[in-house]
């Protein structure tokens, strides 16, 4: 399949047998809740500790990059809804090797992430139930969400709908309390003014170095947004669903991420140890003297982790199914029963559980290698998205302009700006000692996948062409 003649519905054989069991309310809430992950609730603490109040700028810059990526992905996904999402777009735009690389790299990222989320969730449960084995909680969570994804897709949609609703409710409540505290109208509090923003070293207490560390931390907190374009292929109205989700991405990022960071650094001194140790949300609620804040936020973090597990098993299975449909993976993974790729669900779940076992058996070498290899995969995926949109936008304008339901702003200028932003983040990762190994690990994995994909592409091209009228 050449990159200039790839048909629009690249993974149609698989999508044709997947059910359209996701309702619009499922898709809307997946899009809304997908922005809110455990990385926001807990991981942002390290960014605040490094950047101080300037973490707001870091999240704004990385948020701008994510908005551009989502707009590009939305344009392509609305024009060609497919369960393989950006992998399908990369294949059409660049070639089969690119679809193979982006797809399997993302599958690997999701499977390892499932294991990490299971470990995090189990850690919370053992805190509540001392003496219980962590592995038992991991096994329970794996069984529950593997079972959920083995059933009809509407079950996945229902779980994500309620998980997302709880996460959104929690963060809206937090923002409401924070705004009242900043205004000085929350009982028992006084308006902090700008003391925490300009005192204790100023707005950028650790200079540009601290801002860079905060920027890198914030970039990876945005992972998970891509799931909505994968899920859209199984929704009742894929094109309209993607269009609506992408158009509302801007205010979601601005309110949930940038708004949260602004509230936190205004209310709490950035250098307070609790920000990094307990997480910024717990630290803020404790600072305001709200009883039981720690346990409340632990419940929210647990929900965020379980939601991510559910979504990542779903996303990994659909990506694997799409890759097989395009003859880029083991045929067995693509078998669909009852509208669900059950083999892909099982394999993705087992791979995630294996990652958990490795965290017990080989925490210092193999597991650490796994963590390093996934460190920058999301950036690699974004790079493929931007390059694909650059190519496909012109092709779609020429061949089927009516499909451009969602359009990238100021094309091609903002697409090129996004690519420059990604290159800058890559350069900053290489510069920082803590992220350098992650970048190198991801680079090795990406290179290996690209070579395998290229070899497979060349083998396929060397075979005799299929008779006219038969599409693969």
TrEMBL record:
PROSITE patterns: AMINO_ACID_PERMEASE_1. The chain crosses the membrane at residues 27-49, 55-73, 104-129, 135-153, 165-186, 211-233, 254-271, 296-317, 343-361, 367-392, 404-430, 436-456. Keywords: Amino-acid transport, Membrane, Transmembrane, Transmembrane helix, Transport. Belongs to the amino acid-polyamine-organocation (APC) superfamily. Amino acid transporter (AAT) (TC 2.A.3.1) family. This is Amino acid permease. GO terms for biological process: amino acid transport; transmembrane transport. It is a multi-pass membrane protein. Pfam families: AA_permease. It is found in: Membrane. It comes from Streptomyces pristinaespiralis (strain ATCC 25486 / DSM 40338 / CBS 914.69 / JCM 4507 / KCC S-0507 / NBRC 13074 / NRRL 2958 / 5647). Coiled coil: none annotated. Residues 26-432 form the Amino acid permease/ SLC12A domain. The keyword Cell membrane does not apply. InterPro entries: AA-permease/SLC12A_dom, Amino_acid_permease_CS. It comes from the Bacteria. GO terms for cellular component: membrane. Its main location: membrane.
């Amino acid at each position: 399949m050449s990159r200039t003649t790839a048909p629009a519905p690249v993974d149609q054989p698989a999508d044709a047998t997947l059910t359209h069991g996701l309702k619009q309310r499922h898709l809307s809430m997946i899009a809304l809740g997908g922005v809110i992950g455990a990385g926001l609730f807990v991981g942002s603490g390290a960014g605040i500790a490094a950047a101080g109040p300037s973490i707001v700028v870091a999240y704004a810059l990385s948020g701008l990059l994510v908005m551009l990526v989502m707009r590009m992905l939305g344009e392509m996904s609305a024009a060609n809804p497919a369960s393989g999402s950006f992998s399908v777009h990369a294949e059409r735009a660049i070639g089969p090797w690119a679809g193979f690389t982006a797809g399997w790299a993302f599958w690997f990222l999701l499977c390892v992430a499932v294991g990490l989320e299971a470990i995090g969730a189990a850690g919370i449960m053992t805190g509540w139930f001392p003496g219980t084995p962590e592995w038992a909680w991991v096994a329970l969570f794996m069984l529950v969400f593997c079972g959920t994804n083995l059933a009809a897709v509407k079950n996945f949609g229902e779980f994500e709908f309620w998980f997302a609703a709880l996460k959104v409710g929690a963060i809206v409540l937090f923002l409401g309390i924070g705004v009242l505290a900043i205004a000085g109208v929350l009982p028992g509090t006084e308006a902090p003014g700008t003391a925490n923003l300009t005192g204790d070293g100023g707005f950028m207490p650790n200079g540009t170095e601290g801002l860079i560390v905060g920027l890198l931390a914030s970039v990876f907190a945005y992972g998970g947004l891509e799931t909505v374009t994968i899920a859209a292929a199984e929704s009742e109205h894929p094109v309209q669903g993607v269009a609506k989700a992408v158009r509302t991405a801007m205010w979601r990022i601005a309110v949930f991420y940038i708004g949260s960071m602004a509230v936190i650094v205004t209310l709490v001194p950035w250098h307070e140890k609790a920000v990094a140790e307990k997480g910024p949300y717990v630290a803020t609620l404790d600072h305001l003297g709200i009883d039981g804040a720690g346990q409340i936020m632990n419940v929210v973090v647990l929900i965020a982790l379980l939601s991510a597990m559910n979504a990542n098993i779903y996303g990994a299975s659909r990506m694997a199914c799409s890759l097989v449909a395009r003859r880029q993976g083991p045929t067995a993974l693509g078998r669909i029963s009852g509208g669900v790729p059950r083999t892909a669900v099982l394999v993705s779940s087992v791979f995630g559980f294996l990652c958990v076992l490795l965290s017990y058996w080989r925490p210092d070498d193999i597991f650490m290698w796994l963590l390093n290899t996934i460190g920058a995969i999301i950036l690699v995926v974004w790079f493929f998205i931007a390059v694909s949109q650059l190519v496909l936008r012109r092709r779609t304008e020429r061949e089927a302009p009516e499909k451009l339901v969602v359009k990238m702003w100021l094309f091609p200028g903002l697409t090129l700006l996004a690519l420059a932003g990604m290159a800058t983040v890559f350069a900053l990762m290489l510069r920082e000692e803590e992220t350098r190994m992650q970048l190198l690990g991801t680079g090795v994995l990406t290179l290996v996948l690209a070579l395998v994909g290229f070899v497979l592409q060349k083998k396929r091209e060397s075979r005799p062409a299929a008779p006219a009228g038969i599409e693969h």
